[in-house]
User: Fold these one by one.
Assistant:
Number 1:
Amino acid sequence: MQFRAYRMRLKKEHLKDYIKVHKKEKIWKSVVEDMVKAGFKKMIILQSGQDLILFEEAEDLKTAYSYYGKAPESQRWDDMISEWMEIYPEFNGISGEIVFDEIPVIFYYQDGRLLH
Protein backbone atom coordinates (compact mmCIF):
# COMPACT_ATOMS: atom_id res chain seq x y z
CA MET A 1 0.00 0.00 0.00
CA GLN A 2 1.30 3.47 -0.89
CA PHE A 3 0.23 6.68 0.78
CA ARG A 4 1.07 10.36 0.65
CA ALA A 5 -0.21 13.77 1.64
CA TYR A 6 0.01 17.13 -0.01
CA ARG A 7 -1.24 20.68 0.47
CA MET A 8 -3.61 22.66 -1.68
CA ARG A 9 -4.96 26.19 -1.18
CA LEU A 10 -8.42 27.44 -2.11
CA LYS A 11 -9.21 30.89 -3.40
CA LYS A 12 -11.19 32.63 -0.64
CA GLU A 13 -14.21 33.18 -2.84
CA HIS A 14 -14.54 29.43 -3.52
CA LEU A 15 -14.20 28.06 0.01
CA LYS A 16 -17.95 27.47 0.42
CA ASP A 17 -18.25 26.03 -3.12
CA TYR A 18 -15.51 23.47 -2.44
CA ILE A 19 -17.00 22.37 0.87
CA LYS A 20 -20.49 22.15 -0.64
CA VAL A 21 -19.54 19.89 -3.58
CA HIS A 22 -17.66 17.50 -1.26
CA LYS A 23 -20.70 16.80 0.92
CA LYS A 24 -21.83 13.19 0.71
CA GLU A 25 -25.10 14.13 -0.98
CA LYS A 26 -23.48 16.55 -3.46
CA ILE A 27 -20.29 14.85 -4.67
CA TRP A 28 -20.60 13.41 -8.15
CA LYS A 29 -21.23 9.67 -7.85
CA SER A 30 -19.31 9.08 -11.08
CA VAL A 31 -16.18 10.59 -9.49
CA VAL A 32 -16.46 8.30 -6.47
CA GLU A 33 -16.98 5.32 -8.81
CA ASP A 34 -13.85 6.33 -10.74
CA MET A 35 -11.89 6.52 -7.47
CA VAL A 36 -12.94 2.96 -6.65
CA LYS A 37 -12.10 1.68 -10.16
CA ALA A 38 -8.75 3.51 -10.05
CA GLY A 39 -7.82 1.66 -6.88
CA PHE A 40 -7.88 4.44 -4.29
CA LYS A 41 -8.45 2.84 -0.88
CA LYS A 42 -8.57 6.01 1.19
CA MET A 43 -8.72 9.75 0.60
CA ILE A 44 -9.12 12.28 3.38
CA ILE A 45 -9.20 16.06 2.91
CA LEU A 46 -8.64 18.25 5.96
CA GLN A 47 -9.29 21.99 6.01
CA SER A 48 -7.67 24.86 7.90
CA GLY A 49 -8.92 28.18 6.52
CA GLN A 50 -8.04 28.22 2.82
CA ASP A 51 -5.49 25.42 3.19
CA LEU A 52 -6.42 21.83 2.44
CA ILE A 53 -4.37 18.74 3.27
CA LEU A 54 -5.16 15.74 1.10
CA PHE A 55 -4.14 12.27 2.33
CA GLU A 56 -4.53 9.35 -0.05
CA GLU A 57 -3.83 5.63 -0.20
CA ALA A 58 -3.78 3.11 -3.04
CA GLU A 59 -1.99 -0.11 -3.86
CA ASP A 60 -0.14 1.84 -6.57
CA LEU A 61 -0.69 5.60 -6.66
CA LYS A 62 0.74 6.08 -10.17
CA THR A 63 -1.57 3.40 -11.58
CA ALA A 64 -4.54 4.90 -9.71
CA TYR A 65 -3.87 8.38 -11.07
CA SER A 66 -3.29 7.04 -14.56
CA TYR A 67 -6.77 5.45 -14.57
CA TYR A 68 -8.45 8.35 -12.78
CA GLY A 69 -6.87 10.92 -15.09
CA LYS A 70 -8.37 9.26 -18.16
CA ALA A 71 -11.94 9.07 -16.80
CA PRO A 72 -13.99 11.83 -18.51
CA GLU A 73 -16.21 12.77 -15.55
CA SER A 74 -13.24 12.86 -13.19
CA GLN A 75 -11.36 15.10 -15.63
CA ARG A 76 -14.37 17.42 -15.70
CA TRP A 77 -14.49 17.41 -11.87
CA ASP A 78 -10.77 18.15 -11.67
CA ASP A 79 -11.09 21.01 -14.17
CA MET A 80 -13.84 22.59 -12.03
CA ILE A 81 -11.96 22.13 -8.74
CA SER A 82 -8.64 23.38 -10.12
CA GLU A 83 -10.27 26.70 -11.08
CA TRP A 84 -11.09 27.23 -7.40
CA MET A 85 -7.49 26.78 -6.25
CA GLU A 86 -4.54 29.06 -5.62
CA ILE A 87 -2.24 26.06 -5.10
CA TYR A 88 -3.07 22.80 -6.85
CA PRO A 89 -0.90 19.87 -8.01
CA GLU A 90 0.15 19.60 -11.63
CA PHE A 91 -1.20 16.38 -13.08
CA ASN A 92 -0.50 14.31 -16.17
CA GLY A 93 -3.37 11.84 -16.51
CA ILE A 94 -1.69 9.92 -19.32
CA SER A 95 1.39 8.95 -17.33
CA GLY A 96 -0.20 9.07 -13.88
CA GLU A 97 2.46 11.54 -12.77
CA ILE A 98 1.52 14.22 -10.27
CA VAL A 99 3.76 17.10 -9.17
CA PHE A 100 3.06 18.52 -5.72
CA ASP A 101 4.73 19.72 -2.55
CA GLU A 102 4.56 16.53 -0.53
CA ILE A 103 3.89 16.69 3.19
CA PRO A 104 5.93 13.91 4.80
CA VAL A 105 4.01 11.42 6.91
CA ILE A 106 5.84 11.08 10.23
CA PHE A 107 3.26 9.01 12.13
CA TYR A 108 0.56 6.73 10.76
CA TYR A 109 -1.38 4.37 13.02
CA GLN A 110 -4.32 2.24 11.89
CA ASP A 111 -6.02 -0.75 13.48
CA GLY A 112 -3.25 -1.45 15.95
CA ARG A 113 -0.47 -1.14 13.38
CA LEU A 114 2.12 1.50 12.70
CA LEU A 115 2.20 2.03 8.94
CA HIS A 116 5.07 4.47 8.47
Number 2:
Amino acid sequence: MAKIKSAIKNMRKSEKKHLQNQVKKSQFKTSVKKALVSAQKGEDASKLLSDAFSKIDKAEKTGVIHKNQAARRKSRLVKKIKALQKAGVQPAESK
Protein backbone atom coordinates (compact mmCIF):
# COMPACT_ATOMS: atom_id res chain seq x y z
CA MET A 1 0.00 0.00 0.00
CA ALA A 2 1.27 3.43 -0.91
CA LYS A 3 2.17 5.85 1.89
CA ILE A 4 2.84 8.99 -0.13
CA LYS A 5 -0.16 11.26 -0.63
CA SER A 6 0.35 11.67 -4.37
CA ALA A 7 0.67 7.91 -4.82
CA ILE A 8 -2.54 7.34 -2.86
CA LYS A 9 -4.33 9.93 -4.97
CA ASN A 10 -3.00 8.34 -8.17
CA MET A 11 -4.31 4.96 -7.03
CA ARG A 12 -7.77 6.45 -6.41
CA LYS A 13 -7.76 8.13 -9.83
CA SER A 14 -6.59 4.95 -11.49
CA GLU A 15 -9.37 2.91 -9.88
CA LYS A 16 -12.06 5.41 -10.95
CA LYS A 17 -10.75 5.44 -14.51
CA HIS A 18 -10.61 1.65 -14.55
CA LEU A 19 -14.28 1.42 -13.55
CA GLN A 20 -15.29 3.99 -16.19
CA ASN A 21 -13.39 2.07 -18.84
CA GLN A 22 -15.08 -1.18 -17.83
CA VAL A 23 -18.50 0.45 -18.22
CA LYS A 24 -17.72 1.81 -21.68
CA LYS A 25 -16.23 -1.48 -22.84
CA SER A 26 -19.23 -3.40 -21.53
CA GLN A 27 -21.63 -1.02 -23.29
CA PHE A 28 -20.07 -1.44 -26.70
CA LYS A 29 -19.75 -5.21 -26.34
CA THR A 30 -23.44 -5.39 -25.44
CA SER A 31 -24.44 -3.25 -28.41
CA VAL A 32 -22.37 -5.48 -30.73
CA LYS A 33 -24.08 -8.59 -29.37
CA LYS A 34 -27.52 -7.01 -29.83
CA ALA A 35 -26.72 -6.22 -33.47
CA LEU A 36 -25.54 -9.78 -34.11
CA VAL A 37 -28.56 -11.35 -32.42
CA SER A 38 -30.85 -9.11 -34.44
CA ALA A 39 -29.14 -10.18 -37.66
CA GLN A 40 -29.37 -13.85 -36.68
CA LYS A 41 -33.11 -13.50 -36.12
CA GLY A 42 -33.45 -12.07 -39.60
CA GLU A 43 -34.43 -8.60 -38.44
CA ASP A 44 -33.10 -5.34 -39.86
CA ALA A 45 -29.94 -4.66 -37.85
CA SER A 46 -29.04 -1.31 -39.41
CA LYS A 47 -30.17 0.79 -36.44
CA LEU A 48 -28.45 -1.50 -33.96
CA LEU A 49 -25.36 -1.54 -36.17
CA SER A 50 -25.13 2.25 -36.14
CA ASP A 51 -25.59 2.20 -32.36
CA ALA A 52 -22.76 -0.32 -32.04
CA PHE A 53 -20.54 1.83 -34.28
CA SER A 54 -21.31 4.84 -32.11
CA LYS A 55 -20.41 3.01 -28.89
CA ILE A 56 -17.19 1.65 -30.40
CA ASP A 57 -16.23 5.13 -31.61
CA LYS A 58 -16.88 6.61 -28.16
CA ALA A 59 -14.73 3.94 -26.53
CA GLU A 60 -11.96 4.68 -29.02
CA LYS A 61 -12.27 8.43 -28.55
CA THR A 62 -11.89 8.18 -24.78
CA GLY A 63 -8.93 5.81 -25.03
CA VAL A 64 -10.62 2.65 -23.81
CA ILE A 65 -9.55 0.84 -26.97
CA HIS A 66 -6.98 1.62 -29.65
CA LYS A 67 -8.14 3.18 -32.93
CA ASN A 68 -6.99 0.14 -34.93
CA GLN A 69 -8.90 -2.17 -32.62
CA ALA A 70 -12.02 -0.04 -33.09
CA ALA A 71 -11.66 -0.20 -36.87
CA ARG A 72 -11.07 -3.96 -36.75
CA ARG A 73 -14.12 -4.57 -34.55
CA LYS A 74 -16.37 -2.52 -36.82
CA SER A 75 -15.07 -4.28 -39.91
CA ARG A 76 -15.57 -7.73 -38.44
CA LEU A 77 -19.06 -6.84 -37.23
CA VAL A 78 -20.16 -5.75 -40.70
CA LYS A 79 -18.60 -8.88 -42.20
CA LYS A 80 -20.48 -11.14 -39.78
CA ILE A 81 -23.80 -9.41 -40.38
CA LYS A 82 -23.39 -9.60 -44.15
CA ALA A 83 -22.46 -13.28 -43.89
CA LEU A 84 -25.58 -13.97 -41.84
CA GLN A 85 -27.77 -12.20 -44.37
CA LYS A 86 -26.11 -13.96 -47.29
CA ALA A 87 -26.41 -17.39 -45.63
CA GLY A 88 -30.11 -17.33 -46.27
CA VAL A 89 -31.30 -15.39 -43.28
CA GLN A 90 -33.33 -12.70 -45.00
CA PRO A 91 -34.85 -9.76 -43.09
CA ALA A 92 -38.34 -10.56 -41.85
CA GLU A 93 -41.11 -8.66 -43.60
CA SER A 94 -43.16 -6.39 -41.40
CA LYS A 95 -46.89 -7.00 -41.20
